[in-house]
TrEMBL record:
Pfam assignment, any one: Aminotran_3
Name of the featured protein: Putative aminotransferase
Cofactor: pyridoxal 5'-phosphate
InterPro entries cross-referenced by the UniProt entry: Aminotrans_3, Aminotrans_3_PPA_site, PyrdxlP-dep_Trfase, PyrdxlP-dep_Trfase_major, PyrdxlP-dep_Trfase_small
Encoding gene, per UniProt annotation: BaTn1953.ORF7
Family (UniProt): Belongs to the class-III pyridoxal-phosphate-dependent aminotransferase family.
Gene Ontology molecular-function annotations: pyridoxal phosphate binding; transaminase activity
Source species of the chain: Brucella abortus
Residues passing through the membrane, by range: none
């Protein structure tokens, strides 16, 4: 069994060993157990505010935000109370609850391009639904996607080729993000079979510097879609409700036809959404897209509470201010401290208060209440 030299006395190591027997590779989803660095925890027990605690009682600052969903802090009392109020009445019922209508109304009121909303459970559901609706509206097949972009784990978009056939991706055409010439060439290749251009909120390919979309690129994407009668789809799963409550491309001055949301929409509760303009309403109405848990009311109640709170505090502006303060503090960190961001601090987030790091300054920054 591969326990990565972690002492077998730890609960994490014991769970890894047990998991190897009953879970392929001992892990599923975003990360593989074999790829975790030595000492990095695989199993967690709890989270509160900005910290998470592993099964051995070590606490960490959660810079990962649970892979993105946590935007108001773990166990946010407002969000949890909203979800619990529906859980006490029942979550999975024979149809949606009133929270679905309230959430759809809230999204339409918050997102400028949105005339309607549909709900799913994760980002792959949402991006796949967008592509389905675009093809249903245009009666075309070709979809332009950026090289290296991540849009989910379905066969048409997964980064893995295991179990994927060439036919699953035969109608995808790739372009280079932020490269107008490349995008234009891809649209030309699609010709009169162009159904959609799929764009990320920003370039966030694995292990390379991130890029915000340029206005020139956004304008070109919009113009190409308008000229061809195709859909401009914004994959806002990662950036949604963080960069701008109205959509992550608001800063470019360009509105998409449809957008996919998940991650931060419900502060950790499983939910995704598609928003779209009226042109795509009929295909959204006719397409068969469903799941056993897509009516769940608790996550929708959580989403309503999350979005209302983000609107109240102007969440994107607050996050930008704190991110800038954080970056400034890191640049002032004393050299050669030897600190590592994943070193466990037994029982508490002691890395925050250690004089050997920049975190005392950051603790003062983040202690300021709104």
């Amino acid at each position: 069994m591969n326990t990565h030299s972690v002492p077998v006395t730890t609960m994490d190591a014991q769970l890894r060993e047990r998991a190897e027997r009953v879970i392929p590779n001992g892990m599923w989803g975003h990360q593989r157990a074999s790829s975790l660095p030595q000492g990095y925890p695989q199993y967690f027990a709890s989270g509160k505010d900005a910290c998470v605690t592993d099964v051995d009682g070590n606490s960490y600052i959660d810079f990962m935000c649970a892979w993105g969903p946590i935007i108001l802090g773990h166990r946010n009392p407002l969000v949890d109370a909203a979800a619990l109020s529906q859980i006490e009445l029942g979550d999975s019922l024979n149809g949606p609850t009133a929270h679905a209508v309230e959430l759809a109304e809230l999204l339409v009121a918050t997102i400028p391009h949105a005339d309607w909303a549909l709900f799913q459970k994760n980002g792959t559901d949402a991006t796949t639904s967008c592509v389905t609706i675009a093809r249903g509206t245009t009666k075309r097949r070709k979809v332009l996607v950026a090289k290296g972009a991540y849009h989910g784990a379905a066969p048409w978009c997964t980064p893995s080729l295991v179990g994927v056939t060439a036919e699953d991706r035969v109608h995808l055409i790739h372009y280079v993000y932020n490269d107008v010439e490349s995008l234009t060439a891809a649209a030309r290749e699609a010709g009169d079979d162009l159904a959609a251009i799929l764009v990320s909120a920003f370039k966030h390919d694995l292990a390379i510097p991130q890029e915000s979309p340029t206005k020139e690129f956004a304008q070109a994407a919009r113009a190409l879609c308008d000229a061809a009668g195709a859909a401009l789809i914004l994959d806002d799963v990662r950036g949604g409700f963080r960069i701008d409550l109205g959509g992550s491309w608001r800063g470019t001055g360009i509105e998409p036809d449809m957008a996919a949301y998940s991650k931060a929409i419900a502060n950790g509760y499983a939910l995704a959404a598609v928003t779209g303009s009226d042109r795509f309403r009929e295909a959204a109405r006719q397409a068969y897209m469903t799941g056993s848990f897509w009516y769940g009311g608790a996550s929708m109640a959580a989403a309503v509470a999350t979005i209302k709170e983000l609107r109240r505090i102007d969440g994107p502006a607050l996050m930008k201010m704190r991110a800038n303060a954080f970056a400034a503090a890191l640049t002032r960190r004393p050299p050669d401290t030897g600190s590592t961001c994943f070193k466990p601090a037994r029982r508490s987030c002691r890395w925050c208060s250690s004089p050997a790091t920049a975190m005392p300054r950051l603790a003062r920054v983040f202690a300021r209440r709104r």
